[in-house]
Amino acid sequence: MGRLKGRKIIITGATGGLGQSVAKKFDAEGAELILIGRKTKSLEDLDDCLSKNALLIPLDLKNTEGIYEMAASIGKRFGYIDGLLGLAATLGSLTPLTHLTPALWQQVLQTNLHANWHLLRALEPLLLKSTGGRICFATDLPEETAYWGAYATSKSGLNTMIKAYSKEMEHSKIKVNLINPGPLRTNLRAQAFPGEDPSKIASPDTVTDMFVEAMAS
Hints:
Layout: E1 8-12, H1 17-28, E2 32-37, H2 40-47, E3 55-58, H3 64-78, E4 83-86, H4 102-128, E5 134-138, H5 149-168, E6 175-179, H6 187-192, H7 208-215
Parallel strand pairs: 1-2, 1-4, 2-3, 4-5, 5-6
């Protein structure tokens, strides 16, 4: 225990199934958490489960201006952060590609891809002030499967973007990673596979260690 002691770490998607499990694990490992989620009540409920109070930031990542305001606020309060863990994701709709509405297409791309680019731009200066900045995004390996067009496009873009960024940061103090935790028992998974038996799917609690390792100094 204590592998993240004193490290200031932002978690997006903190109130999702994986986000809650990781937040509790990071708390147990001594991290100072900055939790981002869309719903204030869900953030407060999660905070009640932690050993010490986290900084709670209700924010919809589709709000680009809000991302930069959040970064500026954190910069004024702390001066730096040690880690960014991106767990926010949306499935959208499993629909033929040309049947998607432009609004839904934009929503999926904004949440899963564009928002993460804005997070990198906004938070990189604060991460460079850490003695060992860490960035990690949860992802999967989307296949060229019918009806998954928006989600697969967004995740493929995220994978390519983060791999390129990792190479760009090779000679800096920031280490950048992608983690594919595999199928997990989350609401997003249930939305994608409503007929699946959740008891046969791994709990998010089983994969939290890999995220601790990615965020440790």
